[in-house]
Amino acid sequence: MRAVIQRVSHASVTIDGGVKGKIGQGFLVLFGAGQGDTRAEAELLAKKTAGMRIFCDEAGKMNLSLADIGGSVLVISQFTLYADCRRGTRPSFTNAAPPDMANGLYEYYVKLLREEYHIADVQTGEFGAHMKVELLNDGPVTIILDSDELKRSRSLSK
């Protein structure tokens, strides 16, 4: 499972000319599920997302989390995070999870942010829809989380 987290001043998603989700300061999360991903990976990514301390404190040091600043999250499903570009010029997406599985994991990740980590304002796009995403990246700060790498680093630290 992969998440691209962008610290934003604001972000929005528009579908068919109408705004579906809109946030102020917080995270824009591009979320992708891969073949073989389970709820365990969604739980790992949700925990990392909610706890990530990448907002500046009074000293200008990245030391504050979403909860510390009362931030919001806009989560957008994006299967293209699993693009395989090793051969040719047309990416393959066979490493992405099938749509029904990916949607379930996307919804579970969003539910965890809302219910387990108590983020009051979690907005979403629409799974499988053509979306227009606008954001003002603050910093810019962009963090890439990959559940395979997170699990690997956990096993190395034991």
Q: How would you describe what is shown here?
A:
- The structure is a single chain.
- The chain is of the alpha/beta class and 158 residues long.
- The protein has one domain (2-148): D-tyrosyl-trna(Tyr) Deacylase, Chain: A, CATH 3.50.80.
- Helix content is 28%, strand content 35%.
- It has 4 helices and 8 strands.
- The chain has helices spanning 39-51, 66-69, 99-116, 147-156; strands at 2-15, 18-23, 26-32, 55-56, 62-64, 72-77, 122-124, 132-146.
- Strands 1, 2, 3, 6, 7 and 8 form a 6-stranded mixed sheet that branches. The chain has a two-stranded antiparallel sheet with strand order 4-5.
- It is globular.
- The two termini are 22 Å apart.
Features of this protein?
two-stranded antiparallel ribbon, D-tyrosyl-trna(Tyr) Deacylase, Chain: A, globular, 35% strand, single chain, six-stranded mixed beta sheet, 158 residues, 8 strands, 4 helices, alpha/beta
